[in-house]
Amino acid sequence: MSALLKVENLSAGYGEAVVLNDVSVALDPGKTLALLGRNGTGKTTFMNTLAGATRQHGGSITLDGVALHKTPLHLRAAAGIGWVPQERNIFKSLTVDENLTAVARPGRADRAAPWTPVRVYELFPRLAERKTNLGSQLSGGEQQMLAVGRALVLNPKLLLLDEPLEGLAPIIVQELLRAIGRITREEGLSAIIVEQHPQAILAISDQAAVLDRGTVVHSGTARALLDQPELLDKLLGVAR
Ligand SMILES: Nc1ncnc2c1ncn2[C@@H]1O[C@H](COP(=O)(O)OP(=O)(O)OP(=O)(O)O)[C@@H](O)[C@H]1O
C-alpha cells in the first residue's frame, strides 16, 4: 500500500526560527497517527506546517501523491487537509448551521458517503439541537464538535486534530472520543491527532510518533506504546 501522507526530512518554523528538524513521518490510507510529546516539542508546529501556516525551510510533504509543500495555505483545504487547530477557529458570529454550510464542499468521487451537515448532526446530536445558536453561544465542547464538523464537511483526505480534548469535561471527552473513533475506524478517514491524554488517543490510533525538541524520537505502533507504559512515560518525560 502506498502512503497517503509522506513527510520527508521536514524542517519548518516561524520566520528564521527553525522548530522542526529533519522530521519524517508516513501514514497509510485509513490509518490514525497519535502525535505525542511534552509541551513545546513542536507538535502544533507540525500540524500547522501540514496546514501551510508556518514557514517550511526544507524537506517535502506529499499527500496522495501531490507535493503539498508547494501549495499555499488557502489551497490546502482543497488539496485535502481538514485542519482543526487548537484554537478551534469557528465563526462565532454565525449560527452552527451557517458554520457548516458556509464551508461544505462536495464529497470526493471515491467516497460512498460524503460528509454533509446532516451527517455531522447525526454524529453530534448536541449540534443538531443548537443549529440556530451562534458559535459564541456554544460551550467549549460544542465548539470543538463544530470545529470537527466544519473540517469534515470539507471532505478532506486527512483530518488534523490538534488537542481536541483540551479543557473539556470528562463526559464530553468520551463523546468526542467515540465520534473520532467512528470517523476514523468506521468511516476510514485518515487522521493525525495531537493530544496531552496519550492513553485515550493511543487506544483509538494505529501508529504513534513522539516528538522531542522538534525531532521524531520514537515511532511505531500505538499498541506497542500502550503495552509499554514505562517507555511512554520516559518518552514524555513523566516521572514515576
Ligand atoms: N508563532 C510562533 N512564533 C515563534 N515561535 C513559535 C510560535 N509558535 C510556537 N513557537 C515555538 O515553537 C516551539 C514549539 O511549539 P509548539 O507549539 O509547536 O509545541 P507543542 O509541542 O505543540 O507544545 P504544546 O503542547 O505546549 O502545544 C516552541 O519553542 C514555541 O515557543
Q: Concise description?
A:
Helices cover 32% and strands 27% of the residues.
List keywords for this structure.
single chain; 240 residues; alpha/beta; Rossmann fold; six-stranded mixed β-sheet; four-stranded antiparallel β-sheet; 9 helices; 27% strand; globular; binds adenosine-5'-triphosphate
Characterise the protein shown here.
- This protein is α/β, with parallel strands linked by helices.
- It has a domain at 5-88 and 158-235: Rossmann fold, CATH 3.40.50.
- It has nine helices and ten strands.
- It is globular and about 45 Å long.
- The chain binds adenosine-5'-triphosphate.
- Adenosine-5'-triphosphate is lined by residues 14, 17, 19, 37, 39-45.
- One of its GO terms (molecular function) is ATP binding.
- InterPro entries: AAA+_ATPase, ABC_transporter-like_ATP-bd, ABC_transporter-like_CS, BCAA_Transport_ATP-bd_LivF, P-loop_NTPase.
- It comes from Hylemonella gracilis ATCC 19624.
Which SSEs are present, and which pair or pack?
Blueprint: E1 5-14, E2 17-27, E3 32-36, H1 43-51, E4 55-63, E5 66-67, E6 81-84, H2 96-103, H3 117-123, H4 125-129, H5 140-152, E7 158-162, H6 170-186, E8 190-194, H7 198-202, E9 207-212, E10 215-221, H8 222-227, H9 229-235
Parallel strand pairs: 3-8, 3-9, 6-7, 7-8
Antiparallel strand pairs: 1-2, 1-4, 4-5, 9-10
Bound molecules: adenosine-5'-triphosphate.
Pfam family, one: ABC_tran
Protein name: ABC transporter-like protein
Keywords: Amino-acid transport, ATP-binding, Cell membrane, Membrane, Nucleotide-binding, Transport
